[in-house]
Amino acid sequence: MPRSSPARQRAAYRCSECGWETAKWVGRCGECQAWGSVAEVAAPTTRAAATPVSRPAVPIGQVSVEESAFRSSGVPELDRVLGGGLVPGAAILLAGEPGVGKSTLLLEVAAQTSRYQRRALYVTGEESASQVRLRADRTGGVHDELYLAAETDLGAVLSHLEAVKPELLVVDSIQTIAAADLDGVPGGVTQVKEVAAALIRMAKTRNITTVIVGHVTKDGSIAGPRVLEHVVDVVLHFEGDRNSRFRMVRAMKNRFGPVDEVGCFDLSAEGITAVTDPTGLFVENHEQQVPGTCVAVTMEGRRPLLAEVQALVTHTAAERPRRTTSGLDSSRVAMVLAVLHQHCGVRLHQQDVFTSTVGGARLTEPATDLAIAVALASASTGRPPPRGVVAMGELGLAGELRKVRDLPQRLAEAARLGFRVAVVPGRSGADERRVEGMRILEVGDVHSALRLLSLLGG
């Protein structure tokens, strides 16, 4: 009987930053564009053989769904994003910038889980156990069913799982955990892939809900190989401004629920709390009408939020006037300025223009174009818009207003908060009977909208 030949070695090149592979060496990674990160690796090619199955295949109608029922995390806003709560055996990746509050949020989730007499294990690789205990004392998260371990070795983490047998596992973070039998530094492509695979395999076989904390790069994407986002069930991004206590959790991938939901939180020294009605954080209450302001209605996932846009126009002697934005897309503000100049006669080419939002809100949706235009025209003429007005609509280069999605939900939210007049694009299908107490003004272009609000000079 002939001897089997040894596995052939296939030469390949892999990026150490993101795990991208190519058949030949290149100086720059084709995925993450990093220079000098592509190195040669040797991978054996073998033929897969049939192995015994773990359990026989059954008709899909006979598969039980009781094991995958949602369980509340104890944090309602997080349950909203997840689609109902935590699913046993699910692998969740939570990524965010340093200091945004990822550890505080997950410690609160672990504490709430232990309050329901469900055991939770919190594994920290970035802090000592005493540091996490101090945070738990400050936020009221000390419970008998909440176990804490400070480990950076994968084998030790798996041993803790065997000993504690938790229903919830939190790993903070995957970039600090390493497998001793593999080469590479913690956080490298090889280490992250192996650690993630081992944790997810344990989560699926033991029905342990696993939440993994991930780092982000300077451009906001998740650090490490892209395969990490593919193998997990849920990918969450934790967002927030360092100058504000307001935080948002956004679902980028969710196998158990919608991917267009956001959760709102307030981060303070006492911990993190859910914000069920965040609109008041982004709308300023003026005692009298102020020029250069307008309230927009934007959609964060399925949730309508009202946010105030403010504009300031001042004369300048500089050759090139300043265009400064805060919380708004600078390119869209520049486009709105060009449309106002061309189609409405609002000449701001010799003035400094400053635009901002209230409360640190970030408005990138095109539906806020009309509110930006109203604020700029009001600041230019010095005439405040009428009280109780909201404006929504996408602005085209020809000055036309385009329809916006989810208009009934936006109007209902504005009416709930006391606004009585809404300026919307024409032919939107909205009428006064849809929202009680709300007067809806449909206009076809931005010039008609500004003329209707008496914000044009002359």
Give a structural overview:
The structure is a single chain. The chain is of the alpha/beta class and 458 residues long. The chain folds into 3 domains: 35 residues; 209 residues, P-loop containing nucleotide triphosphate hydrolases (Rossmann fold), CATH 3.40.50; 172 residues, 2-Layer Sandwich (Ribosomal Protein S5, domain 2), CATH 3.30.230. It contains 10 helices and 21 strands. A 9-stranded mixed sheet has the order 6-5-7-8-4-9-10-11-12, with helices on both faces. It has a 4-stranded mixed sheet with strand order 13-14-16-15. A 3-stranded antiparallel sheet has the order 2-1-3, with no helix packed on it. β11 and β12 form a beta hairpin. The longest helix is centred in the middle third of the chain and has 18 residues. It is elongated. The N and C termini lie far apart (99 Å). The N terminus is likely disordered. Keywords: ATP-binding, DNA damage, DNA repair, DNA-binding, Hydrolase, Metal-binding, Nucleotide-binding, Stress response, Zinc, Zinc-finger. Plays a role in repairing double-strand DNA breaks, probably involving stabilizing or processing branched DNA or blocked replication forks.
